[in-house]
Amino acid sequence: MQFDSEKIISFIKEEFGLEKVETSIVLGSGLGDFADHLTKIKSIKTSDIPGYPHSTIIGHAGEIILCTYTGVNILLFKGRIHLYEGYDISKVILPTKIAISFGSKYLIVTNAAGGIADEMQPGDLMVIEDVFFPHYKSKFVGLGSKNRILNKLSSDLIEFVLKTGEREKIDLKSGSYAFSLGPSYETPAEIQFLKKAGCDAVGMSTVPEIIFSQNTDMKVIGISCITNLAAGISKTKLTHDEVTETANQVKSKFSNLLKAIIEKLPVSNS
Ligand code: HPA
Question: Tell me, which fold does domain 5-264 have in CATH?
Answer without folding.
Answer: Rossmann fold (3.40.50)
